Amino acid sequence: MWRAVSRPPLNVVERYTSKTAYWNTYNLTLVELAYRAAYADSPLDTAARLASWVLSHVSYRVHLGRAGSDRALIRVFGGYTIQGDCVEVADVYVTMARALGLPARTAYGVLLTSYSQRMWLNMTTVAEEGEALLQHWGGHMWPQVYIPPYGWVDVDMLDGMSTNVGVYSARHIVFGVEETKYYGSALTSSCIPSYLDLEYIEYEFRGVKL
């Protein structure tokens, strides 16, 4: 895969291709699916093929916890589906990318639908709201892959339901990347690593003229 470009630094490879609690790179099913669906001669082609495969297997639904790649991939008649929201989609993508030797991590924050927007979340009612959350909350998580000479490249498949390798917009507000402590689901939390119990969260974004 690295024949066409230089390899990433060793410290990047060691850190971002390893197994974690949510990204089980030893899951043989995910490894086999990754090689079958996405292995290519260049890392950019691999990232794009993997994005296309993941996107075509998404069964989107709001998930209040974090399933991790093992539980997000569900066996169904005729194949597999990825069940969950942006967190589960990102976790499966990152796991499969790492299994292929492509350094990957997640970025998290919010995704705006307009440049002037108010978002709010009542933590006491999220369970009852379900997908109605999407009307007033835009917490988001998406994968990033490391490809020389570009560095970290965003891959947000759920923004417009497209592969979107290397596509990044001003509507993506990044709070952080790959923290060890993550406060719940991107849809139902502040998307800020935290040890606090939050009951209500609100953000207001105001567009500016460039």
What do you see in this structure?
26% of the residues lie in helices and 25% in strands. By secondary structure, the chain is of the alpha+beta class. It has one domain: C8orf32 fold. The radius of gyration is 17 Å and the shape is globular. It contains 6 helices and 9 strands. The strands form 3 sheets. The protein has a 4-stranded antiparallel sheet with strand order 7-6-4-8. A 3-stranded mixed sheet has the order 1-3-2. It has a two-stranded antiparallel sheet with strand order 5-9. The protein starts with 9 loop residues before the first helix and ends in a 5-residue tail after the last strand.
Radius of gyration: 17 Å
**Helical percentage:** 25-40%
Extended strand count:
9
CATH hierarchy, class? Alpha Beta
Mean pLDDT: 84
Uncertain stretches of 5 or more adjacent residues: 180-195
3D shape: globular
Largest sheet: 4 strands, antiparallel
Strand order of the largest sheet: 7-6-4-8
Counting copies of identical and different chains, the oligomeric state is: single chain
What's the N-to-C terminus distance? 40 Å
Q: In percent terms, what proportion of residues is strand? A: 15-25%
The helix/strand class is: alpha+beta
Domain Transglutaminase-like: 78-159
Organism: Thermofilum pendens
Pfam families: Transglut_core
Protein name: Transglutaminase domain-containing protein
